[in-house]
Specification:
- The chain is mainly alpha-helical.
- Among the domains are: 354-476, Alpha Horseshoe (Serine Threonine Protein Phosphatase 5, Tetratricopeptide repeat); 479-547, Serine Threonine Protein Phosphatase 5, Tetratricopeptide repeat.
- The protein is built from 36 helices and no strands.
- Pfam families: Ank (PF00023), Ank_2 (PF12796).
- Keywords: ANK repeat, Repeat.
């Protein structure tokens, strides 16, 4: 038995069921294969199909009613008057054919007296469903037949509102051109809720022109209080913003947080909108760069964005934005830790950020966080390196040995030599500090110097080279810490043989064997660690001094 013949013996109900799963092209092929398929939609079978249409699969399959053009189907709906008034899962046939976009069956239902404004359980009319699916010809037929375009569904949406939400531009344009809407009705669909998803369509522009045609004044106080300019800006709709500004919308209108449209554009990194709004605000004679209710300016907003827009930052500076005194700390911090291009731009354009006092304070604070708070944020290394680069270049005068911002006389070099968690980066900072002229001999309040710290914390070869560099530049190699320990004590204790050798070459015999607060000298330390070579090194140095 061939597959074609076998299909003719399948029960009619089964073939209808199989057809539910097929898209129109496959369904057409199936109909050509099954000789009886076009005759299967008998009144009995069709009624059963209609009444079972509540589950999602069958509900979506109603979209396929657009292709119901069989003479058998047309004949069925012409001869079954009861179906016009029956509720199929809380909807009429007119609802379902409007949803499917079948103009022929919609007109047939209307000609037979179907209730054009009937509402389903969601209070949608056939016009709602046709508008939601963008079936323009069906919408036209319903409107021409007298459908009420102002009926609201359970969410308060009219067919126009539904078409806007579903981004059906052609339907929106037709309804605005064909229906005499009251100004209030158009204003409702111009609200944020209805325009939320229309950023990239021409729908907001249509609504704007419809409101203008109705006589609405966008320059009025009422219009400003509605915040249409703010909404258009937040949606990134530059054309609508241009229209609103050209029609007199106040560019200084603010939202509940005191933010202007410019602030919103800056928060989104939208340079074209920002340029447009700055121009409008300056033309109006006001300051575009005023702070919002929390004291944040557009410039600060751009600087603290997770991805600083360099072109937008340049635009603000070129347009006259200045760094407020209250913003200096936060902007400086963002510049020091942010992209190199942003840092260099602000070094050139915002000199108030780079005072000696400010940079010395930052230098000490960042190194304190790295050394004492064990902050692992590499941005602190980046910021510190940039400050030192400014100091070394001479562009800004920075006292890299200043401890005036420390309660116990700690210097930046003191903290840098105390960093243990990232010694490679710490070594780079120490080298830059030394290049910038940092003093290695300044003790803190208890006598500990940067050299004491680096002898204690250094482990790798690079740091050991730094130790030698610092010892060579020291003018007081006999400096003692709070425990009475000299550099030699710590060099022996932490096994720095080259440092020991260098220190011994510079020290007197008395200094070599001076004891700490407990009376222990460097030889005691070597004996405690069992370092034979270090013991021999110390004894040999002592003998040479005796000779």
């Amino acid at each position: 038995m061939s597959s074609t013949t076998s299909l003719d013996f399948i029960p009619a109900e089964l073939i209808v069921y199989i057809g539910d799963f097929l898209e129109p092209p496959s369904l057409a092929a199936f109909a050509r294969t099954a000789k009886r398929y076009s005759q299967l939609l008998t009144p009995q079978l069709l009624s059963q199909w209609l009444l079972c249409g509540c589950d999602m699969r069958r509900w979506l399959s109603w979209k396929h009613t657009k292709h119901w053009e069989s003479p058998h189907i047309i004949e069925y709906f012409e001869k079954s008057p009861s179906d016009i008034y029956r509720a199929y899962c809380c909807q009429t046939l007119l609802h379902r054919f409007a949803f499917g976009g079948n103009l022929c069956l919609v007109k047939l239902m209307l000609s037979r007296g179907a209730n054009i404004n009937a509402q389903d359980k969601l209070e949608n009319t056939p016009l709602h469903w046709a508008a939601s699916e963008g079936h323009l010809r069906v919408v036209q037929a319903l409107i021409e037949a007298g459908a009420d375009a102002n009926v609201e569904d359970e969410n308060g949406h009219t067919p126009l509102g539904i078409a806007i939400v579903c981004k059906k531009s052609a339907v929106v344009r037709y309804l605005l051109d064909s229906v005499q809407y009251a100004q209030e009705a158009i204003l409702r669909v111009f609200s944020d809720e209805m325009m939320e998803d229309c950023t990239n369509s021409d729908i907001p522009i249509m609504i704007f022109h419809a409101l203008k045609d109705s006589g609405y004044d966008f320059s009025s106080t009422d219009a400003s209080s509605e915040g249409y300019l703010l909404s258009a800006t937040s949606r990134g709709n530059i054309t609508l913003v241009q229209l609103l500004l050209a029609d007199g919308s106040d560019p200084f209108q603010t939202d509940g947080w005191g933010e202007t449209a410019l602030f919103i554009a800056c928060s989104q990194g939208n340079i074209e909108l920002a340029r447009l709004l700055i121009s409008a605000m300056q033309a109006a004679g006001g300051d575009p760069f005023i702070a919002n209710g929390n004291g944040m300016t557009p410039l600060l907003q751009v600087m603290e964005h997770y991805h600083v827009n360099l072109d937008l930052l340049k635009l603000l500076l070129d347009s006259g934005a200045c760094v407020n005194a209250s913003d200096e700390f936060r902007i400086r911090k963002s510049a020091l830790k942010g992209p190199k291009s942003v840092f260099e731009l602000l070094v050139d354009r915002a000199p108030s950020l780079w005072t000696s006092d400010a940079l010395e304070s930052c230098l000490l604070t960042y190194l304190f966080d790295l050394a004492v708070l064990f902050d692992t944020n590499t941005d602190y290394f980046k910021a510190t390196a940039r400050i030192l680069k400014l100091a070394i270049s001479g562009r800004v005068k920075v006292d890299v040995s200043s401890s005036k911002n420390s309660l116990v006389n700690h210097t930046p070099l003191y903290f840098a030599c105390q960093i243990t968690h990232d010694q490679i980066r710490a070594s780079g900072i120490i080298r830059s500090l030394l290049e910038a002229g940092a003093d290695v001999d300044i003790p803190n309040g208890i006598g500990r110097t940067p050299i004491h710290n680096i002898l204690k914390t250094s482990r790798d070869y690079q740091d050991r080279e730094l130790i030698l560099t610092m010892i060579k530049s020291s003018k007081n190699i006999n400096q003692l810490n709070e425990d009475g320990e000299s550099y030699l004590h710590l060099a022996v204790k932490y096994n720095h043989p080259r440092a020991v050798q260098l220190l011994l070459s510079k020290m007197s015999k008395d200094a070599m064997f001076a004891g700490n607060n407990a009376g222990d000298n460097a030889l005691h330390y070597a004996m405690e660690t069992g370092n034979t070579s270090m013991i021999q090194q110390l004894l040999k140095a002592g003998e040479s001094r005796s000779g």
